[in-house]
Specification:
With about 110 residues, the chain is α+β, with helices and mostly antiparallel strands. Helix content is about 15%, strand content about 30%.
Amino acid sequence: MHDPRCRPPVMSTAKIHAGSFSIPPDHPCLPGHMPGEPIVPGALLIDRALDLIAAHRSAPIGPGPLTVKFLLSVRPGDEIDLRYDVSRAGVIVFDGHVGKRLVFSGSLGRAS
């Protein structure tokens, strides 16, 4: 039997552009992260993404379950274009692109 509490979040068709960011090649976490072929750590990408969404919404992002999928590596200096939407249930769904390539996507529990 179908449980109505298990519905996926209802999203609009167009996500909101929160802005863009990049991680500079001289960031202190990069020298030890894949020496010779540096990639930006996922934790740093998500930290920046959630900060940008919170600033765009002018509201803190509340705690909740965080789910992220990293699809492609991000290199220092890559410009990440960030978009998000908030479902009726308060779930923030976001994605990051470098150019036209989707590099990560995720969701965060409930918006505060």
